[in-house]
Design brief:
The protein is of the alpha/beta class and 331 residues long. The protein has two domains: 131 residues, Nucleotidyltransferase, domain 5, CATH 3.30.420.40; 164 residues, 2-Layer Sandwich (Nucleotidyltransferase, domain 5). It is built from ten helices and ten strands. Strands 3-2-1-4-5 form a five-stranded mixed beta sheet, with helices on both faces. Strands 8-7-6-9-10 form a five-stranded mixed beta sheet, sandwiched between helices. Strand 4, helix 3 and strand 5 form a beta-alpha-beta unit. The longest helix has 26 residues. The protein is globular and about 60 Å long. Bound molecules: 5'-O-[(R)-(carboxyoxy)(hydroxy)phosphoryl]adenosine (KG4) and zinc ion. The site of 5'-O-[(R)-(carboxyoxy)(hydroxy)phosphoryl]adenosine (KG4) has 20 residues, from helix 5 and helix 6.
């Protein structure tokens, strides 16, 4: 079995995955949403201090599996350095105590493997990763061969939901609240423009849309409930329209075998509906992670860890390092 640890941002999570059939045997996550809600975003130092309390608590529950552990998988990039270190220090201590090797796992690869928890992988595939830190379109041939087709020039998709939420006085993370409010609003009420409309560039951009929403909020004399719902609906419509427009552009000439959507914001059903229609038009299946595995979790890190274990990608106490950014991970 593999014991996996995730602490790249504000979720403390530990999982146990069986090597023989990739089955998830144990998974627990303690989210810090409530502690950060008040600040409108994640406060790194606070997150690190909370991990130091919650990770050992979860580990206590995983103790019965210790005699069966063959390796420790831990997210070591990308993420907040002060929170990554909490997971990595625990992983190194466990590696010494249990005399087992370490597996350093890239968090973004972990999200890709959230599609294959309890199952075999299906590559090649194309993947849209939409989270709080990333908006990437990827062509995945294997664990080692991932091509970056497009990324964001500024804010990420999930981050734009959080920032719009902050403008509207909503707590962090605002993504699920905006999705719920949008259902009660008129999505045509405010006419925001789709980002990069005139550009041929294969990229995403959310800072301009965020600014349009800010100006709209400032222009309201009275921000009543219905206006907030209408802003949420109008913003979500354009945020998703931009994603879909760039995706359609990317696959005008490219074939798609299968398409996956991962990351915290992939829980958005409005987005899933649009991706469903797109995949149907391309006659490609749409793969989605179970709702509980969309946001950060150790189950996806453990599943990716199984793959790394099978290929012998071990790290030692000396070689396992944290990296807060990971521009060069797609080899
Ligand atoms: O993957 P994740 O848990 O953490 C990162 O690796 O960043 O993603 C969290 C992000 C937050 O920005 C949150 O607002 C967004 O995912 N999110 C959503 C929804 N649920 C979570 N965004 C839009 N709609 C949602 N339903
Ligand atoms: Zn994530």
């Amino acid at each position: 079995m593999i014991l996996s640890i995730e602490s790249s941002c504000d979720d403390s999570s530990i999982a146990i995955t069986r090597l023989s059939d990739k089955k998830l045997l144990f998974h627990k996550k303690i989210s810090q949403d409530a502690e950060h809600a008040h600040y409108g975003g994640v406060v790194p130092e606070l997150a690190a201090r909370l991990h130091a309390v919650t990770l050992p608590k979860i580990l206590e529950e995983a103790k019965p599996y210790f005699p069966h552990i063959k390796a420790i998988a831990v997210t070591n990039e990308p993420g907040l350095s002060v929170t990554l270190i909490e997971g990595v220090v625990m992983a190194k201590s466990l590696s010494i105590a249990l005399s087992v090797p370490l597996l350093g796992i890239n968090h973004l690869k972990g999200h890709i493997y959230s599609l294959f928890i309890d199952t075999q992988t299906h590559f090649p595939m194309d993947v849209l990763l939409v989270s709080g830190g990333h908006t990437q379109l990827l062509h995945v041939k294997s664990l080692e061969h991932i091509e970056l087709l497009a990324t964001t020039m500024d804010d990420s998709f999930g981050e734009s939901f959080d920032k719009v939420g902050k403008m509207l006085g909503l707590p962090y993370p605002a993504g699920p609240i905006i999705e719920a409010y949008a259902k009660k609003g008129n999505e045509k009420k405010f006419d925001f423009t789709i980002p990069l409309l005139a550009s041929k560039q294969m990229a995403f951009s959310y800072s301009g849309l965020k600014n349009q929403v800010r100006l709209c909020v400032e222009a309201q004399e009275h921000l009543d409930e219905q206006t907030i719902y209408d802003i949420c609906a109008s913003f979500q419509r354009i945020a998703v329209a931009h994603l879909m427009r760039q995706i359609k552009k990317a696959y005008k000439e490219r074939k798609i075998e299968r398409f996956g959507v991962v990351g915290g914001a992939s829980a958005n059903l409005y987005l899933r509906g649009h991706l469903d229609a797109f995949c149907a038009s391309k006659k490609a299946p749409l793969l989605t992670a179970k709702m509980e595995f969309c946001s950060d979790n150790a189950a996806m890190i453990g599943r990716c860890g199984v793959e790394c274990f099978e290929k012998g990608y071990f790290s030692s106490l000396e070689t396992l390092k944290i990296r807060s950014s990971s521009k060069d991970i797609f080899f």
